[in-house]
Design brief:
single chain; about 45 residues; mainly alpha
């Protein structure tokens, strides 16, 4: 569990630029969606 928390903290992006924060969140969201799609297709 602590390794998962460490990985999630590494994904955080601390920036003041709203555009940079948005694009980072969008990339993470698309990566999670792709992972869910792949896992659902394997099932």
């Amino acid at each position: 569990m602590t390794e998962l928390v460490r990985v999630l903290r590494g994904l955080r992006r601390l920036t003041d630029d709203p555009r940079d924060a948005f694009t980072h969140r969008l990339r993470i969201g698309l990566a999670v969606a792709a992972l869910i799609l792949v896992l659902s297709l394997l099932r």
